[in-house]
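Extended Data, panel c. Modelled sequence:
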Amino acid sequence: FYTNCNLSETTGPITVCTSKTRRVTFLECPNDTAAMLDVAKIADLVLLCVDAKFGFEMETFEFLNMMQTHGFPKVMGVFTH
């Protein structure tokens, strides 16, 4: 259990208990379309992090197209800098 600690390096999934009945699990996947699709199959919501320095790359559009093809409507884009 991690409480009041900063994680400098993540290894594996991180689960945060938000209440007694709800947990949120964060998964990080590599920049590979097959890995992104595998992780998105088990997710309820996908946070798509895009580096604002580089903008949208081809992998971003491929991932959005795959999500639309597989009928996964809950994709949120997050821009980082």
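The first helix runs from residue 33 to 41. This feature is highlighted in the accompanying rendering.
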